[in-house]
Amino acid sequence: FAVLPFNAAFEPSNDFSERVARNQQLVLKEESYLDRIADPAAGSYYIENLTQMLVEEAWKLFLKIDEEGGFVEALKKGTIQSQLKESAHKREQNIATRREILLGTNQFPNFGEAKTLPVPETVFEPDDKTMEGSTVIETIQVVRGAQAFEALRYQTDSYSLKKKRPTAFMFTFGNVAMRKARANFACNFFACAGFEVVDNNGFNTVEEGIQKVLSQKPEIVVICSSDEEYAEIALPIYEALKKNTIVALAGYPAGITEELKAAGMEHFIHVKSNVLETLQKFQKQLGITDESFN
Question: Is-contact 229 173, C-beta < 8 A?
Fold first, then answer.
């Protein structure tokens, strides 16, 4: 077992990435003293309870596989592949909705990260079938949790080699705390797809913000304010800009959401959003597809 460099999936490691991988272990050694304790988890109810749960669930799986005639027979029947697919799908959904965080990938991406790095999808796609005697066994597919977001980012990067990188512009107005919080959320949201993000300190009037958008011509505008102020400003901003750009709202304000949808607003980004699917829809609407840069 080894801690791999963060860039091991898409390029040869370098001095920096190897140092980061090595230092993770050194930090645990020098600051947590894990090398000086025989059993760091001993007596921890949290760890012991989780361990017991794992043991019980693992034993159930062992018994089920044994009932089917052993591991090879379970493979031939597709039982193991089916369970792995179900588990993988559940984890993919957790990552897509950010219930599980992959730091720097589906949350808090590095806005200035080097672009256009290849995603070697084929490395993780073995042949669909393999032979066991006269029986065809479905091959177990191995996919990293970050791969879907990496492909998303890669599409934007590749598109931007020939065309302008899409920009998400924060239309910040009103309540300082709410506009900053929602702008920060939206910036991280769109940066996961490799979009440029433009934050603003806050416009004094709605008209000032509208004029700024019309002069800069961003591909996406995200309205960032409080729910109370959305009731007054969201619809006028949308009506003024809908012909020039894609208008989204940070949040899902109760009471006015249906009114905004009836007016034609489609995009609402919030903590319950499926980040992956939402960003894929934005890419499609902007014309960022596999064919657009081939």
Answer: yes
DSSP single-letter state for residue 274: -
Contact at 8 Å (CB) between 274 and 142? no
Tens of pLDDT, residue by residue over 125-180, are: 445 565 556 678 898 888 889 999 999 999 999 999 999 999 999 999 999 999 99
pTM for this prediction: 0.85
DSSP letter string, 114-167: PP-----GGGG---SEEEETTEEEEPPP---TTHHHHHHHHHHHHHTTTSPPPE
H or E segment and range at residue 220: strand 220-224
Amino acid at 184: N
| Residues whose CB is less than 8 angstroms from the CB of residue 127 and which lie 6 or more positions away in sequence, other chains included | 139
CB-count burial class (<10 Å; 0-12, 13-18, 19+) for 100 = middle
Burial (CB < 10 A; 0-12, 13-18, 19+), residue 12, is: exposed
pLDDT, greater one: 118 or 211: 211
Decide: residue 156, CB within 10 A, 0-12 exposed, 13-18 middle, 19+ buried.
buried
Task: Kindly state the DSSP code that residue 171 receives in the 8-state scheme.
Answer: E
Cα→Cα distances 257→145, 168, 217, Å: 33, 21, 26
> Which strand (E) or helix (H) includes residue 24?
helix 15-32
Return d(Cα 16, Cα 125) in angstroms, integer.
Answer: 29
Q: How many CA atoms lie within 13 A of 286 on its CB side?
A: 27
